[in-house]
Amino acid sequence: MAEFKYPEALEEVIEHLKRLPGIGRRTAERLALAMLKWDGEKIIAFGESLVKLPVVVTFCPECGALAENGEKCLICRDPARDTKLLCVVEDFSQIMSIEKSGFFKGVYHVLGGKLSPLEKRSAEDLNINSLPGRIEELAVREIILALSPDVEGQATAMYIARLLQDKKLEITRLAQGLPAGADISFADAATIAAAFSGRRNI
Amino acid sequence: MAEFKYPEALEEVIEHLKRLPGIGRRTAERLALAMLKWDGEKIIAFGESLVKLPVVVTFCPECGALAENGEKCLICRDPARDTKLLCVVEDFSQIMSIEKSGFFKGVYHVLGGKLSPLEKRSAEDLNINSLPGRIEELAVREIILALSPDVEGQATAMYIARLLQDKKLEITRLAQGLPAGADISFADAATIAAAFSGRRNI
Fold first, then answer.
1. Which helix (H) or strand (E) holds A134?
2. Which of B29, B49, B90, B108 is the best residue to mutate to test the A interface, defined by the most A CB atoms within 10 Å of its own CB?
3. Distance CA A97, CA B82 (A)
4. Which domain CATH number covers A135?
5. Is B178 inside any structural domain?
6. Is residue A191 in a domain?
7. Contacting residues of A for B100, CB less than 8 Å apart
8. Structure confidence at residue A20 as a pLDDT band (50, 70, 90)
9. pTM (2 decimals)?
């Protein structure tokens, strides 16, 4: 016999698992072997939930957030949301974090990434060009750029601010400063600088 | 709108991922969201590979190792393997490690676990009772107990040794000692004690 190998069907599952972020070959093997100890029915149920995932979970044609069966997302369909307040996020997964805070009651616009010359992502690759049209349609009063405070996030924010400079609306970005519960001794220099420059009266 | 939730189909995938060892709620969410960024076809291919996994990958009716389509495993089907040498392992996943060493040319017997009073696993729950019959059938000369050197592994080895004490065969267990390339200053006390008591002439 040549080199001992896993059955091909198992090898296939390992290859798929390896594509997940942070999962290397060894971890993928470990996970696949662990699954083999489940009831066969549970593995099949897992597989079926994946097969239907891209069919059922779609992206909202309005804002680009997660939605179902090609419909608008729950937020765009909610008449109680203030459409005059538009929050621009990089990624649909960030909407969950913002919604959990319960503070924002407007609607979203998902870019699907940040501008990045290094990764060759320009405005055409992102959901940016539909922004002026949406602003007109929703009669947006304030646009909040909720982009990460890193170089790409700042560049993307500047690009959008310039794109919309002729519109009659307020353009804001999220405050930078110390995170809640943070110990100042562990905060990095950029965070402390931002917290000082953004200081407010109490 | 009530609390913001992921689409149900995504929630389902997260629940399945959570069942994998070492994957908690947050990691499962992260992995599921990462998958949503794949091409839909790749998610479906992953799902299909899982659906067929328990049908295609089965366990060898002879030894309990991984096999395909209900057939005997590659090792049991290989006429070049020495059936007079039987290696008893706890789990099918350990066969891969032993095969990689290329040292062992006999056949295997997978117990499917170790005896454990704490986890209420007795000999009836393991593939132990078929062992005497297989030994007769294969005319085994030596049985190597390749069980982990922990309390449960030792108890299982002792149980098997006693079960087979009337048989005319050699019963051995893997040597304990320093792992290859190990630095003695980092070895634990039990390993050093085993390495001393098992010392050999050079």
1. helix A131-138
2. B49
3. 60
4. 3.40.1360.10
5. no
6. no
7. 4
8. very high
9. 0.79
